[in-house]
Amino acid sequence: MVNQIVTADVLVVGGGTGGTAAAIQAARQGAKTILVSEFSWLGGMLTSAGVSAPDGNELAAWQTGLWGAFLQELQQRQPGGLDHAWVSFFTYDVRIAAQIFADWVEQLPNLQWIVGKVPVEVLKEGNKILGVRFDDLTVQAEITIDGTELGDLLALGAVPYRWGWEWQSQFHEPSAPIAANDFTRQYPVQAPTWVLIMEDFGLETAPEIPPPPNYDASQYAGAWENHGAEKFLNYGRLPENRFMINWPIQGNDYGEGTDRLIASETARQEFLQEAFWHSQGFAHFIQTQLGRRYGLAENIFPAASHNNFTNSLNTTSFALHPYYRESRRLIGLSTIREQDILPQPNGSVAALPVDEEGKVNAIAIGNYPNDHHYPKGNFQVQPKSIRWGGRWTGTPFAFPYTCLVPAEIDGLLVCEKNISVSHIANGATRLQPAVMGIGQAAGMAAALCIQQGCLPRNLPIRKLQTALLEDKQSPAAVIPLFDLPPDSPDWLYWQHYYLDNPAAYPLNGNTVATSKTLAKSNLQPFAGTFYRRSPESYTFTLHQPSEGEKSSWALVTLRPEVNQQWQQCADEQPMVVWGRLNSAGGWLLVEK
Questions:
Q1: CA-based Rg of the chain, rounded to a whole angstrom?
Q2: pTM above the 0.85 mark?
Q3: Residue 513 confidence (pLDDT) above 80
Q4: Most CB atoms closer than 10 Å: which of 129, 228, 475, 516?
C-alpha cells in the first residue's frame, strides 16, 4: 500500500462539532489546513450523531461566533423555522445542518477535507507532535488538533489523559464521590446514546420495526410514564412530523461496559453493536406501545457505517455513530473543575478564569446545567440552574484557553469532549454549542501560532481573545454577559472592558448597557394579558385565540431587553408581544 505524505500548517483529526469548527476557523484565518474525518458528514453531535435538538447557549447573548452563524444559516434554510420541541429552542433536519458545514468547507480553498480515514499513529519527536499517519496517508503539520469523539490522538500519542471519575480529594469538588463505589465502577463515564429519527405516518401504517436479538421490553417500561406519550414525542419534535429519539429515562442511553470504548477495537465494536441494538429495541418498544402510526424515518442519514449492525433494518434512520457525552480527557495546563462552573455566592455567573498574573484567559462560553447521564441510579450534582426570561437556564461560565493545551506535549491542541476537565464538570462542558465555541477557539489559536511562529503554550492569550472578538466573519464572545447580544452596538466595548477589568465583572452578569432590537418582520403579534406567577415565571392569556387554540401560554424569551421589560411589568397588564407559539413546549417565545 502506497503511503502518501502531505504537509499542512494545521491538521485537524475528527470532523465532529469541535473539529469542524476548528478547521473552518483555522482556514478562515489563512492557515493551510487539512481536516480528516471518519464519516461523510461534518458536524459530529449536531449532524452525524443525530443530536438535532442542541442544548445550551440558547440565550441571544450566547449566540455568537460559529454557533451563532450556524443558527442563522439554519433559520434561513430550515422550512418552518427551528422552534418545534420542548427540550431545545432549535430543532432541525440533520441533512440541512450537514450541508451547511459542507458548504462552509467548500468555500475555503486552503482547507482540504479528507473523508473515511481514522488515525493509526501519532508522529512525535521528543515531546512535540509532528503529524498523524492514517492507513495510506501521512499528514505532517506544525499544529495538530484532536477533534475525535473519544480523544483518540491522546491515546495514540501517549499524551497524558484521564478517563472516568476523580475523587473529592483530587479537585475538592462538592459533588465528587469520596472514593470508588459500586456506582462509579459500573458507570466509569457518562452513557452514550445511539440517536435515531422516527416519524408520524399519520393515517398510513408504518413499516414494522423488528426487535433486536435478546430484546427485553422491561428495559424500557415506564419510559414516558411521568410525561405522557405526547409530551415524550414532543421532547425532540423535528420539522415534518419527525422526532429525535434521544431519551434518558428508560430510553436509549446505553452505559453497560463503557470501558470497552477504549479497551480495543474488538471490544469497542462489541459495545457499539449492543448500543445500536438497544436503540433499535427502544424504537420497537415505542411502536408496539404507541402503534404502527409511528415508524422509522427514511433516508435521513447516509447508509453505510452500521452495515454490521443492520439485522435487515432500515439504518438510514439511525445516526452514523453514537452521541458520546464523554471521552478521554486531556491533562492540560489547567483543568476545569465543578467549582469553576458554579455560580458565585449571591451571583448568576461563574467566576472568570484567570491566570497566575490575574489576567482573564477566557476563550469560549458555556451555560448548560451540569447534566449527567447514567442508565440507572440518580447521581446528584450541585445545581447551577437559574431562572431567566420566564424559564430555567444554566449559569454561564467561560472556558480557559489553558484547558485546550497539554501540560507536557507540544504541537497539539484539543477541541472536543477531550478538553482538560474533570468528570464532574464534563456534564456542563460537553454540550454542542459550547464545543463549537471551543473548536473555533482552537482553530484560531492554531492559525495564530503559525503566524506568530510559536507553540500553543506560548501563544499570547490576549491576541487570541482579540482575534475571536474581532473576527470579520463570526466574532465570538469570550465574556458571559446576559444583556449584550452580538447585535448590540456596545457588545465589543464591554467584552474588552471586562478583559481589562476582571474585578469589575458583575455578579449578575449584566452591564449598564441597554439593548434594543426591532421585531423581525416574520413574527406574529399577539394581544393579551400578562400574568406574573412568581419571579421570572410569566403566563399570557390571548384576548382572541384562534379557533382550536388554547388561550393561556407560558411566556419565554431569549432576548435581554424583553426580559428586562417583563421584570418591570405589572401583574395583569395588557400588552402586545411579537413572537411564535410552540405547542410542544406550551410557550409563546417572544422577541419584542
A1: 23
A2: yes
A3: no
A4: 129
